[in-house]
Amino acid sequence: MFPKPKSVLLPNTYAFESEPMVKPTGFREYDARWLFQKEINLMGIQALGMGLGALIAELGVKQEIVTGHDFRGYSASIKYALISGLMAAGCKVHDIGLAVTPMAYFAQFDLDVPCCAMVTASHNDNGWTGVKMGANRPLTFGPDEMTRLKEIVLNADFKNKVGGSYQFHENYPARYIADLTSRPKLTRKLKVVAACGNGTAGAFAPQVLEAIGCEVIPLDTELDHTFPKYNPNPEDMEMLHAIRDAVLQHKADVGLGFDGDGDRCGVVDNTGEEIFADKVGVMLARDMSAIHKDAQFIVDVKSTGLFITDPVLQKQGAKTTYWKTGHSYMKRRTHETGALAGFEKSGHFFFNKPYGRGYDDGLVSAIAICDMLDRAPGKSMADLKNALPKTWSSPTMSPHCADEVKYGVIDAVVKHFEGLQAKGAKIGGQAIRDLVTVNGVRVTVEDGSWGLMRASSNKPELVVVVESPVSEQRMHDMFEMVNSVLRTHPEVGAYNQTI
Fold first, then answer.
1. Which of 84, 122, 365, 457 is catalytic?
2. pLDDT band at 139 (very low <50, low <70, confident <90, very high)
3. Would I find Membrane among this entry's keywords (predicted)?
4. Is 75 among the residues known to form the active site?
5. Is residue 46 within 8 Å of residue 22, measured between CB atoms?
6. Which of 4, 40, 362, 464 has the fewest CB atoms within 10 Å around its CB?
7. CATH code, domain with 258
8. How many CA atoms lie within 13 A of 3 on its CB side?
9. 234 within domain boundaries
10. Residue 7 domain-assigned (yes or no)
11. What is the pLDDT of residues 468-494, one digit of tens each?
12. Contacts for 124 with CB less than 8 Å, ≥ 6 apart
């Protein structure tokens, strides 16, 4: 018998050391995230492992799983608690040690193991932990699997049995690095800033980029889980500005920034200007669709409208579909449609053959960017960016909103805009041209300006993005419109950053 998890336990008590604590809201739409010691304890992680092992068996999948951990002060202990639960459930565990998340995805193919459980808080602040899970490579869990996992864990509906085992794979990163770098070297000499924010990618990114032929300027690549400079998140302006400064100082061709678990890549051009990941996606789509006829792409609802309107993509026969934000949703849709690639504004890129295996890997993205520059020998990164039609777009902005209420707020916002559209009402003097409601609501008006509001899948926040192909002022107008609607809901708090 194993006790049912409690949602709250007080630290420094007998109960905290003897019972599992698992806050239900930690089960997100496609992975799990908790504040360690406040929302989950080690016995709670052990319960998660038992539940995951039971779910794998329930899905009819062989109980064999890859696990690794990111570079946090507590991640290794969390992984071992998870492993103890997985083994109790009868799983054979393949431990690859300290790893970026895509290394665990790679290991599923390389070791021929069906499942993965990667211990990572991704780009979340210190204090957070989590697990990215999958039982059908290259896919990770979606809402159905996460809902069932939550039921099993919270009800302690475990099916523990003998037969679990453990294998540690020594020096596993060498196999991953060899897979990425067994290819022709770049013909163009590129000077690249590799920025890792002292996160896990620092152990691997510089040598991968050097091995494909880049001259690498390392920036905060020393592992330090206190993250002394800034959180390793290439969507945050603080990290982007640090990359800008290094690019300008060293006269680099491009700056590449990797998030805490190495599945995303942010880009700064040779002039020091950051290029938001959706625009990088358009540049890569141009490059790839020039080589591959009738290329299909999937992009998330936060991404620029250029995927539809760009004349070069139109001329090259590229077709793009907008889909739900979230690495699991995007990965699944890219896989199911057989698209050449999927691009998410957050920097999760999913490349199918011949570029990748369908999962998100910041280093595969970095290599694709270097190859794009290699195929444009007379052009800089800024030249390629400036060749895109001009739009004014915001970074991802996130007002606080508690996990318990955020989806209700967004449901109300969707209904508000559907009501306006049904009445033919105008927003700031313009009619609504289009509503996309696959994930929150994306409102596009007559001049092509748009605003997105959705609930974050992994933090107690909403997500807001605005863009205009007309002017910077129109981008600000869309933000004011969006914000005025959100401010009718008192549950919506302060933004992490605004334009």
1. 122
2. very high
3. no
4. no
5. no
6. 4
7. 3.40.120.10
8. 13
9. yes
10. no
11. 999 999 999 999 999 999 999 999 999
12. 33, 130, 260, 458, 459
